[in-house]
Each structure stands twice: as C-alpha cells, then as structure tokens.
From TrEMBL:
<dbReference type="InterPro" id="IPR027417">
    <property type="entry name" value="P-loop_NTPase"/>
</dbReference>
<comment type="function">
    <text>Catalyzes the phosphorylation of pyrimidine nucleoside monophosphates at the expense of ATP. Plays an important role in de novo pyrimidine nucleotide biosynthesis. Has preference for UMP and CMP as phosphate acceptors.</text>
</comment>
<feature type="binding site">
    <location>
        <position position="155"/>
    </location>
    <ligand>
        <name>CMP</name>
    </ligand>
</feature>
<comment type="similarity">
    <text>Belongs to the adenylate kinase family. UMP-CMP kinase subfamily.</text>
</comment>
<protein>
    <recommendedName>
        <fullName>UMP-CMP kinase</fullName>
        <ecNumber>2.7.4.14</ecNumber>
    </recommendedName>
</protein>
<feature type="binding site">
    <location>
        <position position="187"/>
    </location>
    <ligand>
        <name>ATP</name>
    </ligand>
</feature>
<dbReference type="Pfam" id="PF00406">
    <property type="entry name" value="ADK"/>
</dbReference>
<dbReference type="GO" id="GO:0006221">
    <property type="term" value="P:pyrimidine nucleotide biosynthetic process"/>
</dbReference>
<feature type="binding site">
    <location>
        <position position="100"/>
    </location>
    <ligand>
        <name>a ribonucleoside 5'-phosphate</name>
    </ligand>
</feature>
<comment type="subunit">
    <text>Monomer.</text>
</comment>
<dbReference type="GO" id="GO:0005634">
    <property type="term" value="C:nucleus"/>
</dbReference>
<dbReference type="GO" id="GO:0016301">
    <property type="term" value="F:kinase activity"/>
</dbReference>
<keyword id="KW-0963">Cytoplasm</keyword>
<keyword id="KW-0665">Pyrimidine biosynthesis</keyword>
<feature type="binding site">
    <location>
        <position position="191"/>
    </location>
    <ligand>
        <name>a ribonucleoside 5'-phosphate</name>
    </ligand>
</feature>
<dbReference type="InterPro" id="IPR006266">
    <property type="entry name" value="UMP_CMP_kinase"/>
</dbReference>
<dbReference type="InterPro" id="IPR000850">
    <property type="entry name" value="Adenylat/UMP-CMP_kin"/>
</dbReference>
Length: 248
C-alpha cells in the first residue's frame, strides 16, 4: 500500500535530536529543510514495521486524492470545505480543528498549541503533521481535503517528507483583507484568536509565510485560485466547476 513507500522513505531519513520548538516556521523563513521530527519519525517507522505485509487489512491500496485548501484567515476555507465534502464525497480535515481538539483534550501539547494560536503564530510542523497523518489514517478516505495547511514552507516540506506524498491540487481562496477582518470579527464561535489584535498578526503571518507556499505550488501548476468575494453559494459555483472537472 502507499504507506509502505512512506515507510521506506522514513527508514532512509536521518536521525536528529532537535527539539520541537526548533522546527517552528517563525524561526527562519529560509531554513526550509527540517530534519527534526524524531517523535513522528519513530512512530511512523513503527507503524510501517507493524503494517508490513498487511495489505489485506481493508485499507486503501492507493494513495488518497489530496486537496490542500488555502486562503487567508476568514477567506471561507471551512465554509467551502463543508460544501465540497458534502457534494463531492471528500473527508474534510481542518488543521485548525485538529489543533483545537488537541487543546480540548487537556494534553501538555495542547497547552503549547493554545499559547501559539493565541499569538497567531504557527504550531511546530511535527505536531500538526502528526495530527493530520493520524486523522488521514483513521478516516481511511480516498479523497481528502486538508483545510488550512500547510501554513508555511516548513509545514509543506514536513508533510511531503513524513506523509510521503504531495497534494494533487491546491485550492486558494483569494479574499481582500478588509473582507476577511469583517468576517472574522463576525464569526462568533468564541475563538481565542478572533480578536482584532490577533487577527492583525494572523494576516501578517499569512502574507509572509503562507503566500510562499501558494507560490511554490503555483510554479508546479497545482493551484486553482478562486475569487472569495460574494456569497458562499456564488463562490461555491466556481469551486464546483473545478471539482467537477477533476478525475479522482
Ligand atoms: N462568502 C461569504 N460571505 C460572507 N461571510 C462568509 C462567507 N463565507 C464564509 N463566511 C463567514 O465568514 C466567517 C469565516 O468563514 P470560515 O469558513 O470559517 O473561514 P476560514 O476557515 O477561511 O477562516 C464565518 O463566520 C463564515 O460563516
Ligand atoms: O496548519 C496549521 C493550522 C492552524 N494553525 C494555527 O491555528 C490557528 C487557526 O487556524 P484555522 O485554520 O482554524 O484558522 P482560519 O484560517 O480557518 O481562520 C492559526 O492562526 C494558527 O495559529 C497552525 O499553526 N497550523
Ligand atoms: Mg477555518
């Protein structure tokens, strides 16, 4: 199965003793080759070992079709993903929701995540990639939307290395800042980061760290850019055209 290739990849990866904090996107925009995911690597290596020869476990023998869904905070990623999931049979994995779920679990890692989210910064790649990898594994889906990830080049590199694959497409919701701010301030979900001070930081982080990821995938011909102004239904019409034309 596709995870076997991942296992082979992992077992070739060099060991490292760096701490989780060292892999933070904020540390350096130019430090793009993280070799520091010892925890995730160990777990994945175990997973590979325990699954060797277990292709008959009912899991998918092919890698799932993966769509990364990107856009600034409040651009409508979550809203559109719900519609895509319902109309096109995708499993919707929101990286932000996975992180908030970890916070709600009361774990020590959750405390670190909460602190970072309050500051509008990016959680260390190894934490987020591990949560996404586990959720993909549990869902056993053949079509997956990954909403709000990768947030920075380091996230991207970590995902591609640890999960062992690239997205098939990237959807980018392009929305003016003033519209995003208005939507976030009206979101009303009691989120610790939907206040004007944190929103300003999130917008800066989006411009400086997330746009380079969109540029990277654009250069590889994977990005579908969608104008995210108008009603949710109007935007979904553009989304529908893209997904209807795909062969998964
Ligand atoms: N096209 C739209 N027009 C106006 N408000 C919208 C639109 N799409 C989403 N919203 C609202 O804006 C807020 C942010 O949307 P959400 O889907 O959570 O965005 P994101 O996941 O990108 O942060 C939510 O309250 C949502 O209901
Ligand atoms: O891959 C991710 C996704 C989210 N976050 C953190 O979680 C917050 C909320 O993310 P979410 O995608 O839920 O926010 P949205 O863009 O949907 O408003 C972000 O500002 C980051 O602090 C992160 O660090 N890495
Ligand atoms: Mg969201």
């Amino acid at each position: 199965m596709w995870r076997r290739r991942l296992g082979a990849l992992l077992l070739r990866s060099p060991p490292s003793s760096s701490s989780p904090a060292a892999s933070s996107c904020q540390r350096s925009r130019h430090h793009l080759l993280p070799t520091e995911e010892p925890l995730a690597l160990n777990r994945l290596a175990r997973l590979f070992t325990s699954q060797a020869g277990s292709d008959g476990d009912g899991g998918h023998s092919q890698k799932p079709f993966i769509a990364f869904v990107l856009g600034g905070p409040g651009s409508g990623k979550g809203t559109q993903c719900t519609k895509i999931a319902s109309d096109f049979g995708f499993v919707h994995l929101s990286a932000g929701d996975l992180l908030r779920h970890e916070i709600a679990s009361g774990s020590e890692k959750g405390e670190l995540i909460l602190d970072i989210i309050k500051q509008g910064r990016i959680v260390p790649s190894e934490i987020t990639v591990e949560l996404i990898r586990k959720a993909m594994e549990m869902s056993n889906a053949n079509k997956v939307l990954i909403d709000g990830f990768p947030r920075c080049e380091e996230n991207r590199v970590a995902f591609e290395r640890i999960v062992g694959t690239e997205p098939d497409i990237v959807i980018f919701f392009d929305c003016p800042e003033d519209e995003m701010v208005k939507r976030l301030l009206g979101r009303n979900q009691g989120r610790v980061d939907d206040n004007i001070e944190t929103i300003k930081k999130r917008l800066k982080v989006f411009e400086s760290l997330n746009i380079p990821v969109v540029d990277y995938y654009s250069s590889r011909g994977k990005v579908h850019k969608i104008n995210a102004t108008g009603t949710a239904d109007e935007i979904f019409e553009a989304v529908r055209r893209i997904f209807s034309s795909l062969r998964f």
